[in-house]
Amino acid sequence: MKKRDTIVRYTAPERINHWITAFCFMLAAISGLGFFFPSFNWLMYVLGTPQLARILHPFVGVVMFASFIIMFFRYWHHNLINKEDIFWAKNIRKIIANEEVGDVGRYNLGQKFVFWSAILLLILLLVSGVIIWRPWFAPAFPIPVIRFGLMLHSFAAVGLIVVIMVHIYAALWVKGTITAMVEGWVTKSWAKKHHPRWYRELRQKQEKSTE
């Protein structure tokens, strides 16, 4: 692949940020499933021992939240809903059939849904996690609040796992997406096909910088 035929989609700091978040999610999700289902207790060994997992799980969750907050401030302005997203949603059948529709910017509506769902669920996980975090914070809350926190934490965790599964499936479905997050680049033809408005915006910036 000739360098002139590719463009940068994600810089090295962006990719590192993404994979730190992904790694922490995997650790937190796997160990969390071990807490939630007795038959999955063996999953807690991903963090050492069950006892160590109970200590480390919330800290891993905090690191994941902090890493995603950095991603949030990097990308929130690219994930605002616009009229092209409405057109994209109205043509969802074509999307399912692997057709590209609309003048998509850096992210399409599906990617924006994953982004906003993730930040909402992570906030719920952080708040509920603090409430149930023993021995540090849980003693400050009454038992009914802790019980509600446990329920909220469980539902938010399952919701986030589902959202990330959709994210992974979409990344595998659209050829070139994984390369973008691993190596940082995409081909110009990929950008024009999947994100035409984003490609035009990049070209305009390049033209202005060379003037």
TrEMBL record:
GO terms for molecular function: electron transfer activity; formate dehydrogenase (NAD+) activity; formate dehydrogenase (quinone) activity; metal ion binding. GO terms for biological process: anaerobic respiration; formate oxidation; respiratory electron transport chain. InterPro entries: Cyt_b561_bac/Ni-Hgenase, Di-haem_cyt_TM, FDH_cytochrome_b556_subunit, Formate_DH_gsu. One of its GO terms (cellular component) is plasma membrane. Keywords: Cell membrane, Electron transport, Heme, Iron, Membrane, Metal-binding, Transmembrane, Transmembrane helix, Transport. It is found in: Cell membrane. The chain crosses the membrane at residues 20-43, 55-76, 113-133, 145-172. Gene3D superfamilies: Transmembrane di-heme cytochromes, Chain C (1.20.950.20). Residues 9-184 form the Cytochrome b561 bacterial/Ni-hydrogenase domain. Its cofactor is heme. It is a multi-pass membrane protein. PANTHER family: FORMATE DEHYDROGENASE, CYTOCHROME B556(FDO) SUBUNIT (PTHR30074:SF2), FORMATE DEHYDROGENASE, NITRATE-INDUCIBLE, CYTOCHROME B556 FDN SUBUNIT (PTHR30074). Belongs to the formate dehydrogenase gamma subunit family. This is Formate dehydrogenase cytochrome b556 subunit. It comes from Jejubacter calystegiae.
